[in-house]
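Progress report, Aim 2. The chain analyzed during this reporting quarter is listed below.
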Amino acid sequence: MSSSSHQYGDLATQLLTESRRSTTTDTLLKYNDVLVRSIIREQRQLEDLIHAALAIQPDGPADNLAMPTVLLYQTAILRNKRCLLAYHQHRLDRLKDLYWSVGGALPLLLSMPTAAPQASDDGASAASLSAPTDVRSKLSPHEVDFLRSYAASLLELRTAAFSSASAHAGAQGLTEDVDLLAPITRPPKDLHVLVRVVRDCGVVHTEQGAIDFRRGHRFLVRRAEVEHLIVQGFLEEV
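Predicted structure tokens for the chain:
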């Protein structure tokens, strides 16, 4: 690699800078597929350099003068690997936080708009600032598959362990379903809640009968029956 362009590890540093900017601005940036692929190509190039350095040296370990060079290349490989893992883990953690924030509504999450990142002093490009603002357009195909698998695993867990109809629930004495996706940051104080309709969500069947939730209307309903609509942003507490 030419020293006039960049050093080994510079691309991985750029990837970590993106993660740091995502955390600072509290936004989900578009998956940088180009940069990730460039780092993977750099990894393969470093591996080829290691093989070439070992091939031209004598077989004796004591006489192998290429070991310092091999150690340098291997250190760069390990650092790139750690940066790749940290970048992807950061994105998965953020996706899981978004999933729980919408009450497990995966279609709503994928279509949910996100705030556009603001310009910063680190030279953010205009292309990244004008990126699409819905969540799905910022994900890689593998991240979409992860969200679907994550949602399926939680649904299986809720059905097997937190449903009153499951065999395991009978042993625990559960008499009604436990909403695994209900928010717990602010525990409810009353069984009923006064809500205002922010977005039309159609007719919802409750213990009081069918209610047509139209924008601007207010209703006093049982919290457990509309909790998911509050989390998803259709209703708001008054």
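Residues 17 and 134 are 22 Å apart (CA to CA). DSSP finds eight helices and five strands in the chain. These observations will guide the mutagenesis work planned for the next reporting period.
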